[in-house]
Amino acid sequence: MHRFSANYIFPVSQPPIRNGVVEVDDDGVIMRVFHPGNSPKEIHSTEFYNGVIVPGFVNAHCHLELSHLRGKIPKNLGIAGFIKAITEQRGTDEEVQNHGELVERAIAGAIHEMEQTGTVAVGDISNSADTLLAKLQSDIYFHNFIEVFGLNPNEAQSIFEGYLEVYEVFKQKFCGSTSLTPHSPYSISQPLWEKISEFIGKSKELVSIHYAESAAEYQFLQDGTGPLSDRYQSAGIPFCKPQGLTPRGVVSRYVNRDCKVMLIHNTFAPAEELSWLAAIYPQTTVVTCPESNLLIEGKLPNLPEFETSGLNIAIGTDSLASSSSLSMLSQINIILQHFPQLTFSNVLQWATLNGAEALGISSTYGSLEPGKKPGLVLITGFDFRNMCATPQSLAKRLI
Fold first, then answer.
1. Domain containing 355: what range?
2. Residue range 52-70: average pLDDT?
3. Does pLDDT of 93 surpass 50?
4. Three-state SS across the chain?
5. Does one domain contain both 216 and 75?
């Protein structure tokens, strides 16, 4: 047995315990979470830390494939400008000549960063098999979302078959944690949507879809105009001009009602729109990626309103192309800085248990409860007066 104690233990599933103790076995499985009182026996052989101990973080949305683009994308480009910048960076001479080495090294470094800063599980978007080997070498749990997109209706079959090949590669190594998923309401042709819809309807896939990330998404779906339309035309991408569509209309038309749905970003989505979708898909989680939202659109979703509306909220980092780090604590701090009415305890739940529930792994991860193996993370530099982390706080994985 091993015992860990700190100024506070945050089990997430119950209120914080002052001077609490977490007892784990040699495999890291939690045996007890308790307050020792004045019993010398209960604190014998206990490791004491100045700070708070929380469960390992669950990053509900990441793009490890883009780790090599860290710091290369300017701020406030909007979604169309961001897509253009990503495409251009991937097409530079250096990128083309050294793609394999650059990507492999960056992915390994990104995973190491997540391990060091307390992340134990990740919902990761994959458009290729570039991340496969690095993931197999990590003890982080990965749910791999093989993301499908393509606007040219004449290429729907070949596009789908290509992503299906990537899906099968991941499925061999991550059998229970690989999904085929649509990218977004605005980036998929109708024929391709039909193929995706048939596939996820049969397999009842866990769906992770970029949703309401920009105002341009609504404009493009409504009448086929705006920044996204301009981007597709300038890039020479053939597409059928949408007419009278909405993001929620596209999702509700093509995503089977039995699917468990993760809506990513939601930067421009009103709470009532998300609640409408949550009524159709009872297992809906809205995922916010705060630093990425600020870099791309300079805006955050109305998270307090989401919480008041009873929506399930989780947190992701997005990629290093749109975030300075993959630290989940950093994302928590951004949220608390912009929405001081929220509490650390609530946002911590978004970053742990809610993410675990969204990925279907809450029997193991997300909270400090007997029988679980969620990992233990120490947060130092904690503000005990206000019971919250600060920008100076650091997260370190203990086990």
1. 57-361
2. 97
3. no
4. CEEEEEEEECCCCCCCEECCEEEECCCCCEEEEECCCCCCCCCCCEEEEEEEEEECEEEEEECHHHHHHCCCCCCCCHHHHHHHHHHHHHCCHHHHHCHHHHHHHHHHHHHHHHHHCCEEEEEEEECCCCCHHHHHCCCCEEEEEEEECECCHHHHHHHHHHHHHHHHHHHHHCCCCEEEEECCCCCECHHHHHHHHHHHHHHCCEEEEEECCCHHHHHHHHHCCCHHHHHHHHCCCCCCCCCCCCHHHHHHHHCCCCCEEEEEECCCCCHHHHHHHHHHCCCEEEEECHHHHHHHHCCCCCHHHHHHCCCCEEECCCCCCCCCCCCHHHHHHHHHHHCCCCCHHHHHHHHHHHHHHHHCCCCCCCCCCCCCCCCEEEEECCECCCCECCCCCEEEECC
5. yes
